[in-house]
Amino acid sequence: MNKRLLWTLCLTIAAGTVVLYGIINYLTRNTETQMSFIDPQHQQTLLDYGAEAERLYRAGDIRALRDWLQQLQTREQTWAAVIAADIQPLAGSVLAPAFSERFRLGRDVSWKIHLYFKENPVMDIPFADGKTFFVMTLPQRMRPGQYWNYAQLLLQIALPLAVLISVSLVLYRHLMQPLRQLENATRQFSEGKFDVRVRNCLGSRNDELAALAETFDRMADRTGNLILTQRQLIADLSHELRTPLTRVDIALQCAERELVKPGKTFQRIARESRIMRELVEDTLTLAWLENEKPVLVKEHLDLVDLLDSIIDDARFEFPAQRITAQLPLEAPLITCSRSLGQAIENIIRNAASHTPVDGVVHISLQVQNDNWCLLIDDQGPGVPQEHLDNIFKPFFRVAHEDCEHQGFGIGLALARRQIEAANGCILAQNLPQGGLQMVILLPRPTRRIVGL
Questions:
Q1: Rounded to an integer, what distance in angstroms lies between the CA atom of residue 300 and that of residue 297?
Q2: How many CB atoms are closer than 10 A to CB 33?
Q3: Which of 65, 125, 243, 249 is least crowded, fewest Cβ atoms below 10 Å from its Cβ?
Q4: What CA–CA distances, in Å, run from 430 to 129, 192, 230, 433?
Q5: Is the Cβ–Cβ distance between 361 and 413 less than 8 Å?
Q6: Of residues 236, 349, 246, 221, the one with CA closest to residue 283
Q7: CA dist., res. 183 & res. 177, Å (int)
Q8: Where on the phi/psi map is residue 451: left (φ > 0), alpha (ψ -120 to 50), or beta?
Q9: What is the pLDDT along the chain (452 residues), one digit of tens a residue?
Q10: Cβ pair 80, 106 in contact under 8 A
Q11: Is 339 exposed, middle or buried (0-12, 13-18, 19+ CB in 10 A)?
Q12: Considering just the CA atoms, what is the radius of gyration of the chain in Å?
């Protein structure tokens, strides 16, 4: 798994966190800077106070200046004064010109005020002579940053919370969209709509959730096919069982009316019972192979020995047909001998049953690349080209008027599943001279098997 979703989430959260801290830092610094300056209206008020103090000072009315300062301090609830800056060096020291020029008793009204200082700063408004100053502790009502604490709460709590909620909503929608598709598909599938699929609904998305959708589609394919196959298998089996059951009923009715000899009736019933038992057993085996996809226990065997045994049984069962074989001295194989033997036996019996009396069933085994290629040729009527693959479907039969043995359409389907379980494959093709050829490919071992 490429963990694309994990990296997407990590990068989104990491990038979002960095951007969020950057925005918070920028807004905090910018807001603090903007809020650190005295309001222009209050700046003008302070300048007006300085101008009034200078006017009274120049008028020489010290008493009026003192009364005005007392009234100002009472009104603004702060300290204010007019001070002369007469700095005299001592012990023969000399003041540098830069010191004299830059010396201030307080802060200019246009300067930045630090919001973190608890005490209000002293504001300095120089008179025209440059040696006298109006100084005043900044009144509380004029102090900038009155709403700084609220701004901090907004920038450090409300803003991150809003951004994180927005990012969470985006990630939630990114995650929930395919999950809702899966939920909807699962609900439809549980309601019997087995053709529902999810992957195409996710577009070009390629992450863990897309992989989950692909897994769901594979599960839906397999489960849907299994359910439909089982339904069809049960329906076909029910249909096929009606014929032997009907023959049993007829045989019993004839026995009750004494229309035939009891021995023949019992033979008929025994024959139909055997047919039904084989039909049910083969159907159950096919259903097991279809549903479970078993990994069969493998063993070392010689395919030639297996074929010799099967061919001997077939010659005994079909004495009216000639069964010839062209086999190598040995053909080592690693597979399940029981499953493969049943499949090959079924195919040879099927070929012999469709071959007319005195006809020939030819069996040959040869090497084809990395496989053993087993060819089983009969001299039957063959199969129409369009049905060459259909004959491996359960209960599919091709009717021939000149063929007595039609089977029940389950043998070849079972044989294909057994061969596929042994990692092989089978196909059918018509021979140019007439008849049908079954081609079975089985993987050869990469190393020689010791002990065969």
A1: 10
A2: 11
A3: 249
A4: 123, 40, 30, 9
A5: no
A6: 236
A7: 10
A8: left
A9: 567 778 878 888 888 888 888 888 888 888 777 778 888 899 999 999 999 999 988 888 888 988 998 999 999 998 888 887 665 554 454 555 655 555 555 778 888 887 777 788 888 888 888 778 888 888 988 888 777 777 778 887 888 888 888 888 888 888 888 888 888 888 888 887 878 888 888 877 877 888 888 888 888 887 777 776 666 666 555 655 665 677 677 666 776 666 555 666 677 677 667 667 766 766 666 666 656 555 555 677 888 998 998 899 889 888 899 999 999 998 888 776 567 888 898 899 889 988 999 899 999 999 998 899 999 999 988 888 888 888 887 767 665 544 444 444 677 877 888 888 778 899 999 999 889 999 999 988 876 554 44
A10: no
A11: buried
A12: 51
Q: Rounded to whole angstroms, how far apart are CA atoms 265 and 245?
A: 14
**Cα distance between residue 96 and residue 137, in whole Å:** 28
Q: Compute CA 156 distance to the chain's CA centroid, rounded to the nearest angstrom.
A: 37
Amino acid at 181: Q
Q: Residue 327 in contact with residue 364, Cβ under 8 Å?
A: yes
Q: State how far the Cα of 44 lies from the Cα of 59, in Å rounded to an integer.
A: 22
- Helix intervals (H) in 60-197: 62-76, 97-102, 148-153, 159-190
The pair of structure tokens assigned to 249 is 């009923």
Amino acid at 55: R
CA distance 80 to 53: 10
- Residue 19: partners with Cβ closer than 8 Å, 6 or more residues away: none
Is the distance from CB of 343 to CB of 415 less than 8 angstroms? yes
The two three-digit tokens of residue 293, written as one number: 């996809």
Largest distance between two CA atoms of the chain: 157
Neighbours of 413 (CB within 10 A): 22
The residue count for the chain? 452
Strand partners, 437: 377, 429
Angle between helices 4-35 and 159-190 (to 10 degrees): 160
**133, 142, 237, 313, 408 from 357: Cα distances, Å:** 136, 121, 31, 17, 21
The C-alpha atoms of residue 49 and residue 136 are separated, in whole angstroms, by: 9
Q: Is 326 helix (H, G, I), strand (E, B) or coil?
A: strand
DSSP letter at 33? H
Please give the Cα distance from 8 to 16 (Å, whole number): 12
Where would I find the H helices in 258-336? 262-292, 303-317
